RNA sequence: GGUGCCGUAGGCAAAUUGGUUAAGCCGCUUGACUUUCAAUCAGGUGAAUGCGGGUUCAAACCCCGUCGGCACUUCCA
């Protein structure tokens, strides 16, 4: 059997982390088995669907490296297919027109809840007589289409992550609506989610449906639809949900939840993918935690997917992101850092200063957790003029600092060339000449050169500043601070 | 309320499917390194596996009960 899976996001919001995780599991599964990955945009909710969200989803998929083999398909372009299926069900007598109004439904549910009963449609219009229908039509009521669900029916499937699942027809909420009220001169209105999904999955020959566990009840309904339409039923697997701090399903209301947000915050796509792979799956006989998508695909299996939901852990994500960042070459990271520096308002020429920027990246990349950390981490190294913090000023005003800095300045002035080794020599020499502790020289030099008492490696920072000629200017500034 | 699913340290999780002392990672913490923060390295902390029974020589794992959490319960997807 050819493995064919799909990810079917609805463009009612930006690409959500939960959807992305489902996409990743589908991707890993299909790449492990060899097969096709289909992307389908479920935009039948015309009220909330928007094209910019579709774009955001597509961008996010690409960014994460989740390449797909077919699509994107759009459900709104396939409405005829769903209408045909609705008509078929109507013709077979498996679906019918229901004239119950929204108000009547609300009232019915309210009554049921008051009686502590499960809210459900009571199938009241399942067997309407021709006269009743004529009566409702005469009243101007517009029918929805409902699919019959037998109360006594038992639905069973072998879930690939949860094992045997069983549902009773009576727990599905009564006959389900598969098409809305007609508008204009339509025979029936727009087909709804559960119907459209089944028709598409049938048409696209989806062999395995991997989705979040919030769809479990839908699966029972959809199996009934497969049967009614006389089609083979795919294999189902329901993955656990990603939870917020409180242990609830992660939703838009939990702050940062869309892939584009993570991107903006400075996470690398491979880190996000890696973290989500780990959230609910572990490889067999291994404690490996860092993998590329390809590596994980080699090892992936549904039988290793956990059943319990997993809380989203920022600390672990940060750690994974830092691991990827630390292992990257500065030449590869610098282009990703440039936008952050630009946004921070630092002045530089992305082209002309590229070598200098690579050198800067080299200094800081090993201590970055997120790309955005480059802003505070390199703040002190941009620009000719600086501000001195109170602590830095206090350091500069210590005994012996002025003569030490003067000596450094002299050494610098007479040096014909400059690099890290020469910098070390200068420091050594000055320390000896003034008979002071090395710590005093280093601390004071740091204060003078950066205006702060802590930051990236001082020798390398000095070398970097020197390339711009900023070291001399800053030393001068520091000396001026001391004498004022 | 109903139905379903789930429950191993603060978080993610492993445990050859009933077999020593319940892995590993993150976090937290201590130390080392360093001119500093970070990074890195090394060590430490923390769970009687939700709880109570039962079966067994032996239970995280099987059985019964119980509690808790979550999901679904749309003319949303």
Structure notes:
By secondary structure, the chain is mainly alpha-helical. The protein has four domains: 1-70 and 240-327, HUPs (Rossmann fold, 3-Layer(aba) Sandwich); 81-193, Glutamyl-tRNA Synthetase, Domain 3 (Glutamyl-tRNA Synthetase, domain 3, Alpha-Beta Complex), CATH 3.90.800; 328-381, Helicase, Ruva Protein, domain 3, CATH 1.10.8.70; 390-483, Orthogonal Bundle (Arc Repressor Mutant, subunit A), CATH 1.10.10.350. Helix content is 48%, strand content 11%. The protein is built from 20 helices and twelve strands. It has helices at 17-33, 51-64, 79-91, 102-114, 130-139, 193-203, 216-228, 259-264, 269-278, 293-299, 314-326, 330-344, 354-364, 374-378, 390-396, 401-414, 420-434, 438-450, 458-468, 470-483, and strands at 3-7, 35-41, 70-74, 95-98, 144-147, 154-159, 163-168, 176-179, 208-212, 235-239, 242-243, 310-311. The strands form five sheets. It has a three-stranded parallel β-sheet, covered by helices on one side. β9 (208-212), α7 and β10 form a beta-alpha-beta unit. The longest helix is centred in the N-terminal third of the chain and has 17 residues, at 17-33. It is elongated. It starts with a strand and ends with a helix. 35% of the residues are buried. The structure holds one RNA strand of 77 nucleotides.
CATH topology of the largest domain: Rossmann fold
The largest pleated sheet is described as: 3 strands, parallel
What is the CATH architecture descriptor of the largest domain? Answer: 3-Layer(aba) Sandwich
- The CATH class of the largest domain, by name, is Alpha Beta
Structural class: mainly alpha
Instruction: Compute the number of strand runs.
Output: 12
Radius of gyration: 32 Å
């Amino acid at each position: 059997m050819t493995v064919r899976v799909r990810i079917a996001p609805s463009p009612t919001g930006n690409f959500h982390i939960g959807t992305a995780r489902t996409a990743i599991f589908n991707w890993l599964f299909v790449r492990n088995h060899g097969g096709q990955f289909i992307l389908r945009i479920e935009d039948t909710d015309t009220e909330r669907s928007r094209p910019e969200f579709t774009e955001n989803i597509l961008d996010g998929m690409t960014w994460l490296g989740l390449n797909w083999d077919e699509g994107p398909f759009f459900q709104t372009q396939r409405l005829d297919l769903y209408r045909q299926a609705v008509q078929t069900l109507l013709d077979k007598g498996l679906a019918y027109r229901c004239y119950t109004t929204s108000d009547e439904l609300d009232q019915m549910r309210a009554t049921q809840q008051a009686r502590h009963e499960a809210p459900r449609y009571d199938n009241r219009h399942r067997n309407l007589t021709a006269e009743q229908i004529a009566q409702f039509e005469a009243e101007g009521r517009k029918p929805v289409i409902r699919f019959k669900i037998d109360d006594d029916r038992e639905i069973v499937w072998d879930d690939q992550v949860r094992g045997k699942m069983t549902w009773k027809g009576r727990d599905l909420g009564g006959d389900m609506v598969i098409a809305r009220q007609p508008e204009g001169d339509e025979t029936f209105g727009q087909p709804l989610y559960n119907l459209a999904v089944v028709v598409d999955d049938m048409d696209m020959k989806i062999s395995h449906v991997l989705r979040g566990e919030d769809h479990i009840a839908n699966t029972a309904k959809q199996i009934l639809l497969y049967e009614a339409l006389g089609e083979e039923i795919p294999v189902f697997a329901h993955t656990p949900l990603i939870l917020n701090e409180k242990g609830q399903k992660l939703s838009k209301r939990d702050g940062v939840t869309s892939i584009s947000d993570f991107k903006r915050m400075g996470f690398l796509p491979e880190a996000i993918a890696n973290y989500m792979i780990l959230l609910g799956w572990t490889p067999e006989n291994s404690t490996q935690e860092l993998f590329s998508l390809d590596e994980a695909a080699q090892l992936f299996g549904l039988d290793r997917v956990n059943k319990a939901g997993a809380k989203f852990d920022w600390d672990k994500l940060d750690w994974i992101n830092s691991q990827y960042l630390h292992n990257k070459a500065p030449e590869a990271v610098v282009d990703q850092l440039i936008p952050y520096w630009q946004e921070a308002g630092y002045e530089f020429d992305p082209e002309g200063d590229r070598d200098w920027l690579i050198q800067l990246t080299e200094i800081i990349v090993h201590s970055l957790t997120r790309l955005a950390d480059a802003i505070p981490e390199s703040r002190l190294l941009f620009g000719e003029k600086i501000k001195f913090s109170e602590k830095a000023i206090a350091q500069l005003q210590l005994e012996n600092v002025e003569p030490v800095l003067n000596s450094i300045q002299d050494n610098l002035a007479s040096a014909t060339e400059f690099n890290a080794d020469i910098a070390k020599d200068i420091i050594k020499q000055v320390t000896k000449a003034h008979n002071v502790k090395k710590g005093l020289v280093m601390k004071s030099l740091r204060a003078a050169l950066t205006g702060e008492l802590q930051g990236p490696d001082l020798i390398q920072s000095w070398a970097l500043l020197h390339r711009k000629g900023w070291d001399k200017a800053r030393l001068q500034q520091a000396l001026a601070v001391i004498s004022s």
